[in-house]
Design goal:
The chain is α+β, with helices and mostly antiparallel strands. The protein has helices spanning about 1-20, 195-210, and strands spanning about 30, 35, 40-45, 45-50, 60-70, 75-85, 95-105, 110-120, 130-140, 150-155, 165-170, 180-190.
Length: about 210
């Protein structure tokens, strides 16, 4: 009986570890250039945002943000795709791992930058509401290149947070003669291995107490 309970517990933990909190992280669901569960925001006159079937890392689609100051006006802008998860999607203070694959069209980063951003939110207002914490990380600073590579970040949900906003962004300054694009695919946010281990220890201890 004890062995059966332990196996069941470990199987359940494996399911938790493999289940991403992010919806449609491979951008496979949607219609045309619109990815289901994601909001595409075009913040300038010389760029575009959507999903693309041109060069996915896996499956048939990826997210794609681009600007072109060679054939269009050199106007500054921010182009991003984001997802807001509902109340209860995360636990305040718990550790998570964010992973995704990304690449650039060009290694010419003149007048531009690209980021991932996560805002830890208190959407139900139980701890004052609003943004409870933030992480903004330049992917250029992380060594992004023109081939897909996996990025992985260990994050801790801010105190008072009950949900989050996840954003990928390509920003361009008003610089003439530049163009670039960002591909993002296979996005996942899961409880970090340490958090899974703690859940396992707690479950095993509860099993022993019940016995």
């Amino acid at each position: 009986m004890k062995k059966t309970l332990t196996i069941a517990l470990l199987t359940g933990l494996a399911s938790v570890a493999s289940a991403s909190i992010v919806n449609n992280g491979g951008f496979e669901d949607g219609s045309g250039s619109d990815a289901a569960d994601w909001t595409e925001i075009v913040g300038g006159p010389s760029g575009s945002v959507g999903r693309s079937d041109n060069m996915p890392n896996s499956g048939n689609w990826s997210a794609y943000m681009a600007f072109d100051h060679i054939n269009n006006p050199a106007a500054g802008g921010a182009y991003f795709i984001e997802q807001v998860m509902p109340v209860g999607s995360i636990v305040a203070g718990q550790s998570y791992n964010l992973s995704f694959y990304a690449k650039m069209e060009s290694m010419d980063f003149t007048g531009m930058d690209t980021f991932f951003q996560i805002l830890w939110l208190d959407q139900d207002g139980s701890d004052g509401g609003g943004v409870r914490g933030e992480q903004l990380t330049s992917l250029i600073g992380q060594g992004i290149g023109t081939d897909y590579q996996q990025f992985s970040f260990d994050l801790t949900a801010a105190a008072g947070a009950d949900s989050f906003l996840l954003r990928f962004q390509l920003s361009a300054g008003a610089v003439t003669g530049i163009a670039n694009g960002l591909y993002v695919d296979d996005v996942a946010l899961v409880p970090a291995p340490g958090a899974i281990a703690l859940l396992g220890l707690g479950g095993l201890a509860a099993t022993r107490r019940r016995r």
